[in-house]
Amino acid sequence: MRIGELAARTGVSRDTLRFYERVGLVEGRRLANGYRDFDAETVEWLAYVRTARALGFSLAEIARHGEELRDAPDQADALSALFEEKIRIVDARMAELAALRGELAARAGTGCPLRAAGA
Amino acid sequence: MRIGELAARTGVSRDTLRFYERVGLVEGRRLANGYRDFDAETVEWLAYVRTARALGFSLAEIARHGEELRDAPDQADALSALFEEKIRIVDARMAELAALRGELAARAGTGCPLRAAGA
DNA sequence: CTTGACCTTGGAGCGTAGTCCACTGTTTAG
DNA sequence: CTAAACAGTGGACTACGCTCCAAGGTCAAG
Fold first, then answer.
1. Which nucleotide is nearest to B60 (CA to C1')?
2. Is the pLDDT assigned to residue B51 strictly greater than 60?
């Protein structure tokens, strides 16, 4: 599939897709005329990329994980390990949020000042 | 307190504090000699800013919330409302993370490919 | 054969969040 | 009095993640 179709299917702009290629986040073969040619799995990969991005993972991290996966001797094992690592990160982030939530809930209603200086 | 002491107490660099002042995130009076003079509550405010930042809130958002608070007719009410809003955002973010966690957990071990193209 | 949709490249520009630097002024300690 | 430690300013610079633009190549339809 060419870049326009991939863009349409994923909601990621052509410019962004070219940018993602530059930073190693997606890969495309080239057709004889020089056009990029992506395969269908890239759609799923980009859905994953978008989710990971939304949750605060950097493009570099995501790309690195993709590469680790590629280089792994056992794909299934590597995938499981990657997911388990991400789950740990997600758990840690959820714990942080829970802590902030607790802090906010404790302060709500007390009138405890967070900010002294009026703008 | 002058900028150096505030930096030492909060772990936020002087340059960053000056930058925060420029974007309206902190406020300082000035001493006769032109030096910034912060009050003690700014330490707590910055701790809060750092937590909020770590959780993905932008400086603009944080500054805006600070201003809303300042402009509110009833400080305690405004504070409660702000915290409740943040708690809702935090809950939403936790739900997103829980969804990703579920997705990851479901895929871990299945060998379902996320990425087709080898780098 | 032209028009238009699609593709290519390179490079500029933007918003966010700092970080660093040079140069200058102020305060404090020996 | 001088040196060090602190403060001020303005401006350049960085990294990230896009986003836009100009100039041009490719291809299918009319």
1. C16
2. yes
